[in-house]
From TrEMBL:
Key word Ion transport present: yes
A Pfam family this chain is assigned to: ABC_tran
Principal place of residence: membrane
Membrane protein topology class: Peripheral membrane protein
Organism: Phytoactinopolyspora halophila
InterPro entries per record: AAA+_ATPase (IPR003593), ABC_transporter-like_ATP-bd (IPR003439), ABC_transporter-like_CS (IPR017871), P-loop_NTPase (IPR027417), Siderophore_ABC-ATPase (IPR051535)
Record-level Gene Ontology MF annotations: ATP binding; ATP hydrolysis activity
Keywords recorded for this protein, A-Z: ATP-binding, Cell membrane, Ion transport, Iron, Iron transport, Membrane, Nucleotide-binding, Transport
The keyword NAD belongs to this UniProt entry's keyword annotation: no
Top-level taxon of the source organism: Bacteria
Protein name in the entry: ABC transporter ATP-binding protein
Residue ranges annotated for the ABC transporter domain, each copy included: 5-236
Single GO cellular component term: plasma membrane
Origin organism lineage: Bacteria, Bacillati, Actinomycetota, Actinomycetes, Jiangellales
GO term, biological process aspect, one: iron ion transport
Amino acid sequence: MAEQVRASYDSEPVLTGVSVDLIPGGVTVLVGPNGSGKSTLLRTLARLHVPDTGTVTVDGVDTCGLRGRELARRLAFLPQSSPIPAGITAHELVSHGRYAHRGALGRARDADREAVEWALHVTGTSEFADRHVDGLSGGERQRVWIAMVLAQQTGVLLLDEPTTYLDLRYQVEILSLVRRLADEHGITVGLVLHDLNQAAAYADRIVVLAGGAVYAVGAPDSVLTNTTIEAAFGLSVHVVPHPYTGRPTCLPYGHETVANIVEMEYQ
Ligand SMILES: Nc1ncnc2c1ncn2[C@@H]1O[C@H](COP(=O)(O)OP(=O)(O)OP(=O)(O)O)[C@@H](O)[C@H]1O
């Protein structure tokens, strides 16, 4: 989907020669240290950031050739944070997700209403659909944003750190939902996550970005290794198989772990 992309801010390169393929109907997770270019790559895939060179395609079509509504019918993007809209309800915000599907007069049809109800239901936001978004908690608001992009009902879904602000239960629910959208609806999902263990649990493919370039790419167990994580994040970890799923689980050596090891060695 992105081929040999170079992107910059004020002529300062941030991504250099990045090629990334999102698995069709699968979940691709971008991980990497702060400032490695994950959000910029996702924004470039969503055509919100124009690359200096390289191409970005969706369903094989160059995004440069797609107009706003055409693109919005194919691809939905949830940024890391968005301004909080004042004075509108959760239901109204989620309904905005349908704008690209509406006819010339902008009237909601049955399909629009059904998509909004479904998105509210699967994100657990129906119960506060009539409340103002600016009066919701951070996690409730985040789920409403997710509902808005789900209501868009696109074949490609790009989510930048969608679990931010969510408690553990909703982190698991939203990531499980993302998994179901790929498995049961064939939606192509690209998301940025900081939690490597969640990436391992939900991804088909992991892309590790470091310094604006792809450092490693592949299935979780081929990418999430001690050496790759140490090199990309500058952090010592011990990767063990998850006791139930067998997926890689990263245990960082925090200062307490190091202290324990030192203590054990001196006993
Ligand atoms: N609007 C901007 N103007 C100038 N520089 C920017 C802008 N947005 C990001 N950058 C810079 O581009 C680089 C990549 O930023 P980006 O947000 O893509 O990284 P990231 O991997 O998503 O980081 P994080 O994990 O902290 O969210 C960083 O050095 C950042 O300072």
